[in-house]
Amino acid sequence: MTRSAHILIGVCLIASFLVGCASVKRDASFPDVKGTVSDRSGYEIRWSQGHAEDREVETLAGRMLDRPLTARTAVQIALLKNRRLQALYEELGVAQAELVRAGLLKNPLFEGALRFVHDRHEEVLELALVEDFVSLFMIPLKKGVAEAELEAAKLRVTSSVFDLAHQVLLAYYRYQAAKQTLELKRIALQAAEASFEMAVRLHRAGNIHDLGLSVERAMYERYKLDLAGAELDVLAGKENLTALMGLWGHETRWSSVPRLPEMPEQEIDVKDLERKAVEKSLDLDHLRRRYAAAARRLQILEVTSFMPEAEAGVAAEREGDGVWSVGPAITMPMPLFDQGQAARAIGHGELRGIWEEYTALAVELRSASRIAAYRLHLARQQARYYQNILIPLQKKITRESQLRYNAMQTGVFDLLKAKRMETEAEIRQVEALLGYWISRAEVEQLLRGRLVKSARTVTMEKREVPLPMGAGNNH
Fold this sequence. Notes:
Elements lengths: L2 H18 L9 H12 L12 H12 L5 H11 L1 H20 L6 E9 L4 E11 H72 L5 H36 L27 H8 L1 H23 L6 E8 L5 E8 L9 H66 L5 H37 L27
Antiparallel strand pairs: 1-2, 2-3, 3-4
Helix pairs in contact: 2-6, 3-4, 4-6, 5-6, 6-7, 6-9, 6-11, 8-10, 8-11, 9-10, 10-11
């Protein structure tokens, strides 16, 4: 074998060895996700990988669980302990590995053949070592695709973090509202029970007829059913929140702040919400990364559709007399039938589809921002209307009924009815306050860069009192 052949084979083997030594650091991209989450929300995330530092997460979560949970601590615990979120982080490791693989050369192919010459009782040995040189030129483009897909993976993971935070926030607010509603329904049941017991006594005395007694009993039984439903809502709400936070065992004995927080005096500035939502949108950024990856894949297709692979190397043959012959070798397909038309058409179609999806999402995002701003404004008005007008009015009615009852100007049933109406108004007030916090969370989610897909289905209760003209001035 000639000296040049030895050199060529040696270079191929050394290059393959060196490139193959590239390692994959699976969490290399996690700091970028962690930084984005922290900058946009103030929350901390950790990727549990079986290290000693993971015990710090358990300690931190344990300290938060020792105290009644607020909305913020509930979200923080979920971001630390939710196992589905931990599973999602593995996407970063996969995308990182794909980036490393994109920079690797294909393994060289070694071919060998041994042929026997029967009439001369000789052996012919053929050896060849070839490398796909087309893939060598494609490495920069493949790395570009992998880099774009890695960025897209980071955006997907970041989006999922914010989605979980939003789900926990809504679950927490609904759980608090369910607890408040349960307490109010207990009060309503007590009033209905007192009214029914009074009706029983009056019926025995012959002061009310059977119809009046039946009406009071039906109302009492309905309130008992309402209370049972409210108890189930509290139980289901706590279990839902527990699952989202990733808690089990003794951790499920957590408690929370008993009431929904009051509305803050300073409201979120929604003046430029549409512009800010578009600028910060992780969804749009993700589509831009997908578009970049698809464009680079199309560049690769433009070359590989004509020549998917071509191999060059060195071949050696030893004749029966022991003499070696060495020379270059090349193999490549002949594009007679498949010239890549279909592959290129698919690539162009994917590119156009992503662009249309990007445009549609931008339109939806702008519309959702306008709706979210209006919904927040209306929800605040409704909650203020209950707080400043309807609840004080119902309390006044109860006080006046009490005074008239003390003066024997009205009956006990009118007094109990007034108390029930006051309690029912307070339940509607809790629902209005819950609607406000849900609307506020939607706006906050838009400002973090996420479009709430279910935002268009979130509506206020139909039972709420329509606002009269000028009611919004009661701040």
